[in-house]
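re: ur question from earlier - yeah i can do the single chain one, its not a big deal. heres the input i used so u can compare w yours
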Amino acid sequence: MNRIQIALAIALLTVARPALPDPLSDLRSFSAPLAQLYESNPAQDAQLRIYARSQDFTDPHEELAVVTHELIHIASAAHAGYWVHGTIYEGYGRTYWTGIEAGDVEATAGERDQMAAILNNYWERNPANDLGNVIDELNAYSETGGFVCKYAPARSGRQTGPLLGHLTLANAFLRAFRVRAPQRYAELQANPATRGILGSMVQQSYRTLANCGIRKIGHQEEIKSFMGW
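and the output i got, formated as tokens:
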């Protein structure tokens, strides 16, 4: 084989070889704050990847999304404020959301159906959780879910299902506050921190779901009433 034939063979191999996935490069393109959060926490990476794989998140983009999802929780806890696009917002912590816990919440049959992805492994297993915990999940799923929808669409249901579930749980929480703790309900409405972060996270969740092709979301009447939408 002469030099020209060798060069042509190498060129053909180069063209034929499929590009390897580069999730981190894609994350940088998708969200610079998320990429910065990930790259600023190398010590957490190995353990969080083990966790992701143990939950069967095996697609490379999906695995990175789960790692960054957990890093959002860690950053929020470390700053005692919700980490949102690299900015810390008020409203984080149990003192903001006292009055109703998950064990006090009653969901309708329709809400339970829409909460299927989180019904047993989140809501029922954590009766002491409060609405602030739900908002924490809304934030993490809505920050990272769109990344999976864009780069690993076949796996997107494992992000959109829980996001829908937590939106529905937030709706049920607000009904419980309104019916069982009306004074606290009014206080949450009047407090710019609680009202603001809830509204922001719900809107962020709606945008993420829309980008994932889900625009019709049921069981949101309590949220809309609370926010005055």
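Residues 77 and 150 are 28 Å apart (CA to CA). not sure if urs matches, ping me
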